[in-house]
């Protein structure tokens, strides 16, 4: 029963996005402190903005002394990239978790997860 509910929840955002019939814009994210090209204010109509994130656990250097720690990174950075949206924009993000995961923990990872939300 739980698997059936999870499958419905995963399928619902994709079906919702297809029903909107809005133009789609793929945005290439960049590592912080930078941000992808965007407008501060826009007169464009509603659209779906698509982001792609790769989630990976890896060892990162956290200070000038070379101190290292294990962290979840997004597109190779911690913190992850900033996603800028305009009012009335719907966004879709696809999260990829490479297999086999380099995780030090024993966890089950979903291969791909797509989220869809609307900025209001």
What characteristics describe this protein?
120 residues, alpha/beta, 5-stranded mixed sheet, 5 strands, 1 helix
Can you walk through the features of this model?
The structure is a single chain. By secondary structure, the chain is of the alpha/beta class. The protein has one domain (2-54, 80-100, 107-118). The chain is built from one helix and five strands. Strands 1, 2, 3, 4 and 5 form a five-stranded mixed beta sheet that branches. A hairpin with a 6-residue loop joins β2 (48-61) and β3.
Tell me the total number of β-strands.
Answer: 5
Give the ordered list of helices and strands: HEEEEE
Q: What level of helicity do the residues show?
A: 10-25%
Question: Count the helices. How many?
Answer: 1
Largest sheet: 5 strands, mixed
Q: What low-confidence regions span 5 or more consecutive residues with pLDDT below 50?
A: 1-11, 106-112
Report Rg: 17 Å
Number of domains: 1
Average pLDDT value?
75
Shape: elongated
């Amino acid at each position: 029963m739980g698997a059936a509910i999870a499958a419905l929840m995963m399928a619902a955002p994709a079906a919702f996005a297809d029903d909107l019939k809005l133009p789609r814009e793929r945005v290439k994210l960049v590592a912080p402190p930078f941000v992808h090209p965007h407008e501060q204010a826009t007169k464009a109509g509603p659209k779906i903005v698509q982001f792609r994130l790769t989630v990976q656990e890896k060892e990162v250097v956290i200070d000038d002394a070379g101190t290292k720690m294990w962290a979840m990174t997004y597109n190779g950075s911690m913190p992850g990239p900033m996603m800028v949206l305009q009012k009335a924009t719907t966004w879709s993000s696809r999260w990829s978790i490479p297999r086999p995961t380099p995780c030090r923990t024993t966890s089950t990872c979903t291969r791909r997860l797509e989220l869809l939300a609307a900025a209001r």
